[in-house]
Write the structure tokens for this entry.
Amino acid sequence: MRLAEDLPSVIAMYRANFARIRGDAGPATRFAHRARAELAGDDPLTRAVAEWNLAQADLLGGRLEGVEHALRRVMAAYRAAGAPLPAAGVCYDLAQVQHALGRLGAAITTCREALELAAAVDPDLSPAGAAHARLAELLHERDELDAALDHATRGVELSRQHGFAWPLAVALAALAWIRQARGDPDGARAAMAEAERALPDPRLVDLFNPAPAQAARLALAQGRVEDADRFVRDRGLEPEDEPGYPREREYLVLARVLLAQQAPQQALGLLERLHNLAVDQGRTGSVIQVRTLQALARSASGDHAGALEALAEALTLGAPEGWLRVFVDEGPPMATLVRELLVGRRQQQVAAADAVPREYLARLAEAFQQAGLPIRPPTSRGGVVAAGLVEPLTARELEVLQLLAAGAPNRAIAERLVVTPETVKKHLSHVFDKLGVANRTEAVARARELGLLP
């Protein structure tokens, strides 16, 4: 960048950045466009900086598909120019966008790419710290707590070392939730307090400073409703507001506070506006979070069928990418609701639940189990329970499975059990469904994996 010639562009970029971190979408976008327009030359790195600045400004608008494409172009430009560290820095923003779009797998891949880019220069540089911080957040969502802890710890270490405040706050917030999940509420509270100190400027919009809203949410999870209520009052949040994407996390906290204060109808109105905006903007990750809270709010207001419908939709959206903690971290009320959904599914009373993959439900059940919140439906006497099964196998289904593993065809199984071949087919269908498999070979392999067969 030729500073003298590009000074107007540089000034516009700074103005865009200051507006962006305060959540002023209009000025941020205007200044970012001006910065790009006023560039004097065609240097690819300079152009990439301007495009990155514009993508970051557009992030405030909430229509993230276009932002994702723009960030990918910026990454490609940096890589083509032989600048791996800026490319790794772009990954930090790109993973955030992909997370909001609901694409956990893509976001995790982006973070790992950032680590590879940084490692080509020095794995201990600040872009690596940012990537570790984001990766910890994503792995926590998938309930991969050991790996999440490793990345959170590394993210904290590198971000402290380089004085990189934003990823430090993200890493510490992730660390707090990991500790909470592992039964260490005091450790969680300490990590979250440090996350709040990392970015103490109250003018920073929630989208770029997650710690205050995360601290309020943690307070609710720990039963400290007064602390969370103080947060929403200090922020001036009201149920009748029209929330935008930059402050979405704050308003989700408000919805949780309203539920804790036995005001589900107020929460429902707010959540409906949040849901409509997220759907309109294609932010699947946001839709999953909002629908989860809508399920709790509908249940609290007495709309049992509506609660299960909202929950089934959230689970259906979350299943392909392995969203788990968004449900588990809501605690006992969500555990109760998920259990009711499973019972309704088993009794064919909740049609929407049929779209939720059984294997995913098994992983969700295991996550709740590990959190001390068992959700498996009650089983009749003689049923066989195994970790990884949402619904137990009956004793007869286990007999069928054992004969299946021995290589017996359907007719031989029928003769051995003194039943008709049609009954055997029904048993096999139930076994396949409960194991989450499609055929005999997969059933035997899955059963051995779960310890149901030697």
Summary: The two ends are 67 Å apart (CA to CA). Residues 63 and 280 are 9 Å apart (CA to CA). The chain has a mean pLDDT of 90. Residues 3-21 form the longest helix (19 residues).
